[in-house]
């Protein structure tokens, strides 16, 4: 299996996305905290493989800290709670872009 990587960049205080627009990371305020939703665009050429084969995803911030790890649901999303003490916008201003790693068949 081949490991693919893409950089995601802060585009808006509540959204981070990749240049090719396959991936986006959205932050929603929820009961005083934030939910992170990593979403794969359904138009991505590897969407079906990611969904059907339960391909593992790891999202790291600019310092290498793992923020999300898991597999996408049938809608192409992976949702987790934001657990860091600083809000997501300020965190990514400090740490820079983030990187997503995922495996695909060669």
Strand content: over 45%
Distance, first to last CA? 6 Å
The helix/strand series, from N terminus to C terminus, equals EEEEHEEEHE
* Adjacency order of strands in the biggest sheet: 6-5-8-1-2-3-4-7
Could you describe the largest sheet, including whether it forms a barrel? 8 strands, antiparallel
What is the number of domains?
Answer: 1
| SS-based class | mainly beta
> Which consecutive residue ranges, at least 5 long each, have pLDDT under 50?
none
Binned, the helix content reads 10-25%
Q: Enumerate how many helices there are, as a single number.
A: 2
From the spread of the alpha carbons, the general shape counts as: globular
Would you kindly provide a written description of the structure presented here, covering whatever features stand out?
- The chain has one domain.
- 13% of the residues lie in helices and 49% in strands.
- It contains two helices and eight strands; from the N terminus they run ββββαβββαβ.
- It has an eight-stranded antiparallel sheet.
- A hairpin with a 4-residue loop joins strand 2 and strand 3 (23-30).
- It is globular, with a radius of gyration of 13 Å.
- The model has no long low-confidence stretch (mean pLDDT 87).
């Amino acid at each position: 299996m081949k490991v693919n990587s893409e950089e995601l960049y802060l585009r808006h205080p509540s959204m981070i996305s990749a240049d090719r627009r396959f991936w986006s990371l959205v932050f929603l305020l929820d009961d005083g905290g934030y939910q992170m939703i990593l979403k794969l665009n359904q138009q991505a050429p590897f969407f079906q493989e990611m969904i059907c084969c339960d391909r593992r995803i790891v999202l790291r911030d600019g310092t290498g800290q793992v923020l999300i790890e898991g597999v996408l649901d049938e809608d192409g999303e992976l949702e987790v709670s934001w657990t860091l003490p600083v809000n997501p916008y300020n965190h990514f201003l400090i740490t820079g872009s983030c990187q997503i790693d995922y495996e695909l068949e060669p």
